[in-house]
Specification:
single chain, about 150 residues, about 15% strand
């Protein structure tokens, strides 16, 4: 098994199928090449401090190490998105949740090309929509800003 490290790979997997669990979300997507299974881990900042996020990530990595490879499909990419419940959930329960989630991923229909793309304006090269009124006044304050 290899690790996903590039943002483009994470974005590609995000458009695939997903299965939810109390402690994590598993996202999966088949690849066209004959490479090994690749796995990525991510935990957002809303899940706590850096120490807590690292602990969640370590627990997710250990889950994958203890999982039998038969549960995962060859030539697939997977991303485990950690949730705060991963800090307190029993490890054996999380392992069962991961097996169940991978089984549910296999049963889900594969998304067609019409799915929502989750690319920001920065990724696509498009200009971002303006969210503030243009002009010298700040929105809602009535004060003028200096045109620096």
């Amino acid at each position: 098994m290899d690790r996903l490290r590039q943002r483009a790979d994470f974005l590609a997997v995000a458009n695939g199928t997903r299965a939810n669990s109390a402690a994590f979300v598993v996202q999966g997507r088949p690849r066209d090449d004959a490479g090994p299974i690749r796995i990525g881990f991510t935990v957002t900042k809303k899940n706590g401090t850096a120490t807590e996020r690292n602990r969640i990530r370590r627990r997710l990595r250990e889950l994958v190490k203890r999982l039998d490879v038969i549960s995962m499909r060859p030539h697939h990419d997977y991303v485990l998105v950690g949730r705060r419940a991963a800090l307190t959930r029993d490890f054996a329960t999380m392992l069962d949740d991961l097996r169940s989630a991978l089984h549910r991923l296999d049963r889900q229909p594969k998304p067609q090309g019409g799915g929502k793309a989750r690319l920001s304006a920065v990724d696509t090269g498009a200009s971002e929509p303006k969210t503030r009124a243009s002009g010298p006044t700040a929105v809602g304050t009535g004060k003028t800003r200096s045109p620096n």
